[in-house]
Amino acid sequence: MNLSYFIAARYFRSKKKRNFITVLSTISMVGVAVGTMALVIVMSVFNGLEDLIREIFSSFDAELKVEATLGKSFEVSEDWLGGIRDIEGVAILTEVIEDNALLDYNGNQLVGTIKGVSDNFLDQNRFSKGYFWGDTTLGTDKRPAAILGRGVGFFLSVNLKDINIPLKVFYPKAPRSAGSLDPSQMYSSDFLDPVAFFSVERQFDDEYIIAPLHFTRDLLNYGDRRTSLEVKVADGYSISDVQDRLKEHLGEDFSVKNTDEQHAGLLRTVKLEKLFVFLTLTFILAIASFNIFFSLSMLAIEKKKDIAVLKAMGAPDRLIRKIFLKQGALIAFSGALVGLVLGYLICLAQQYFGLVSLGISSAVVDSYPVKVVWSDFIWISISVIAITMLASWRPAHIASKVNTITEL
C-alpha cells in the first residue's frame, strides 16, 4: 500500500475521541456533499427543461423546416415540390403560408398569425404534447375550418358548440396608386368555422390559428408563393442525414433547419443559464470547501510531532505534502460521493414520483422535469478535484516545512 495514502487514511479513520479538528472535517464533508448534491439536482433540472422545450416545440414545429434565405416567401411548382418529395428519407412534405391577419369573432377582435397548411399537416403527429380538444379536421373546400390556439380562443371568446358564429379573417390588400373612399376595398376577408383548440406553449397558443392552405392562399393572394415547407422524416432515417440531402438539393437560396435550429436562441439561453448556475454553485462549493483548508491547517499543527518523527526517519518533504493532500482528497471525495449518490437518488425520485410540483394546473407536465446526464457527473467531479487541490495545497506545504529539531 502507498505509504502516504496509508497514513492519510489512518488520520481520516482515527478512532480517538472527537475534537474540534474532527468536527471541522465532518462539517467539510457535509458541505461538499450538500454542494455536490445541489449541483447534480440543478443540472438535471436544466437538462429536463431543455428536453421539455424540445418536446413542446416538436409537437408544433416540423422536424425540418425549409425557408428562403432572402425574402419572406418563394415560388413553388409541382415539379419542384415533387423533386423534394423524391429525396430519400422525406416522408411528408407540407406547404405553409404564414402571415399576420385580423381575427374577428362575434365582435371581438385580435391580431394573430394565420398558418395555412396543406391537408397532410395533421399527419405529422402534431399536438402530440399539450392539449387538444375538438375536431381534427380543417373542413372542406366549401366550408374551411380553423384550429385555434387556446389563448386566441380565450381572447375572442370562441364557443366551439355555436356553429352559427363563424370566425372572420381580414387581410390588408397591397396598396394601390389610386385611393378609394370605400374602406372595404383596402382589405380582403373570408370566414372560417372554429372547430378545435390546441394548447402547446403560450407563444403559439396566444398567436396562431391553423387554416387550410387553399383558404389562406386565396385570402392573402399568395398564388404559387409559400413562406415555408415542413418536412417529416421517414422512420429509420436520420434527421441530420435528410437535412444534409435537402441542403444539397436546394442550394444556398434556402435554409433547412431542424427543431433545435428553429429555436436556437431559446435553447442557447437555457444552456447559458445552466452554465452560469453551474459556475455559481461551484463557487458556493468552493466556499464550503474552505473548511477543508482550516481542518488540514489545524491537523498540521496537531500532528507536528508525528511529522517530525517521519522526517527524522528520512521522510522527504514530498511525502509529507502527499499525506495532507490525500487527507484533503479523502474528506472531499467522501463528501462528493455521498452528494453524487444522494443527488442521483433525488433526481430518480423526482422523475418517477414527481416530488416537487410546478404548481401550475394547466402546465404540460405536473412536476419539474429532470434528466440525469452522466457527463454532468464528470464535470462536477473535475470541479471537486480542482477545489480540493487548491484547498489542500497550502496546509500540505506548511506541514512539509515543520522543523524536526524544534519539535522533537
UniProtKB/TrEMBL annotation:
Domain (MacB-like periplasmic core): residue spans on this chain: 25-152
Keywords, in A-Z order: Cell membrane, Lipoprotein, Membrane, Transmembrane, Transmembrane helix
GO biological process: lipoprotein localization to outer membrane
Membrane topology: Multi-pass membrane protein
Residues in ABC3 transporter permease C-terminal domain copies: 280-403
One GO location term (cellular component): plasma membrane protein complex
Membrane-spanning residues: 20-46, 275-301, 328-353, 373-393
Annotated InterPro entries: ABC3_permease_C (IPR003838), Lipoprotein-release_system (IPR051447), MacB_PCD (IPR025857)
Localisation per UniProt entry: Cell membrane
Family: Belongs to the ABC-4 integral membrane protein family. LolC/E subfamily.
The name this protein goes by in its record: Lipoprotein-releasing system permease protein
Source organism of this protein record: Algoriphagus zhangzhouensis
